[in-house]
Model the fold of this input.
Amino acid sequence: NPALDAVLNEKQMRARQCGVVFELSAAIPPKLDIDPLSIVSILSNALDNAIEACVKLKPEERVVTLLLTYKSGFLGISIKNPTDGMLFEGPAGGFQTGKEDKEWHGIGLKNIRSAVDRLEGQLRVTHIDNVFGVNVVVPARIEQPKAIQEDLAEDAPVHATVAQPPR
Done:
């Protein structure tokens, strides 16, 4: 997925520039039929927040872990990072920015939630033992080659095999 590759490469480079170790584990099919703008919004906002939180820590504590998985028609995204423990709870629950200028900051989690809702997925945000976690599950189909799509559209028997990801 070109959009996914682009955002991951950019955030990996940003993490490196900030002295943050970026651990990535991805076990997903190469082509997923999922809205690229929503996935970019989720990953970009969550990784920006994670990298920013790590910069406040000692260099040896700066690690962002991203796990991408695919199972039974769902894409799983898990991002974890250590924090300094200084999280601010919003008036309606959840977390909010600790920055002074709240009008221009603190929209990352809102953007993530909005993108997850557009995809009809689920979002869970956690903070346990000074580790912040963003966990997302969204429906995603494996993109079928065009010839198979045409066969399926005509209700013709499928004469090709599409490899499924290992389980």
Notes: Confidence is low (pLDDT under 50) at residues 95-99, 101-105, 151-167. The two ends are 20 Å apart (CA to CA).
